User: Fold this.
Amino acid sequence: MTALPFLPFALPDIGDEEIAEVVDTLKSGWLTTGPKAKRFEADFAAFLGDEGLHCIAVNSATAGLHLALEAIGIGPGDEVITTTHTFTATAEVVRYLGADVKLVDIDPATLNIDPAAIEAAIGPRTKAILPVHYAGLAADMPAILDIACRHGLKVIEDAAHALPTTIGGQLVGTLASDATVFSFYANKTITTGEGGMLVTRNAALAARAKVMRLHGISRDAFDRFSTTVPSWYYEIIAPGFKYNLTDIAASLGLHQLKKAHAFQRRRGEIAALYDAALAGLPVITPPHALPGDTHAWHLYVLRLADGAGVDRDRFIERLFTAGVGASVHYIPLHLHPYWRDRYTLDAAMFPHSQHAYERMLSLPLYTRMTDADVQRVAAAVRAALSA
Assistant:
């Protein structure tokens, strides 16, 4: 009997349109930031459907978060509140600027940052809140924005998982926060391989981010080399970064963006198949968006219930033995040596994140999965539990 091929945790969904656009870019001679990146920014603003938005393409969501925090003036002596239950990029950008991070716990039902914990953590040095829309489910933004308004704080959304997520009928990216940052990493809901988009309504923030995106140069590289009278002159007005998105990457994004809603629908179908196939097992399936709203379903995060009879690590080993990939999102920041030691953290300070972490794993979820693939994963889950 021939063994089934290994089913990976994630795979990108790249079609002929993306390939043709990349080939066109390669033939054009314009490989770095240029007309395709500019088109991608315009298309992204149109996708969000808000004419007041500025969209700035960058080479990663990490870069976008860094630029947004720099643009709102975060620096030494300041403190930014975020969740412990995230990838380190969310927090490390605060440290890039010499500011400090205040980590707080999550809501045990949604796994998103707990607004009550945010409010309890606000102190005299707090300048901003950095919520994460975990797994594609929107954080409680009405509550977070209310807290920020009452305390005079800025809000930068980490929306790396959240395209196209909605809350209260509004797309994440169009809310009343100061900036929102999306990721187009290889396993995200749309991909440019590496890449991100900073979105803001604040014209001054956008202007600063555009300057800092490319070495602090006073003129955009595309503008300098594509005007009717090319100009070599520029001025450095700040010590900027190298965060621009290439036209090669943007070529992928132009067509991935057109598929974003279809991708989300398929991800939602897969999540529903998992929900049905895993019903009745000693597991906790992921929370859904409220009626009328959209979950992006970047991740399908399963938690082992108390009666599962197997620990998480052994459970993942059994899945891998069955040829099914899985991952863990995330090892909370309070468990990592840098964050633990710098801020004297321990697991008891974050009981909900710790409890979830010890029991969670992410099952394969990507648009190229077939219904048979989903049933294969579900069968492996059942076998891993019964073993």
Observations:
- DSSP finds 14 helices and twelve strands in the chain.
- Residues 260-277 form the longest helix (18 residues).
- Residues 197 and 384 are 39 Å apart (CA to CA).
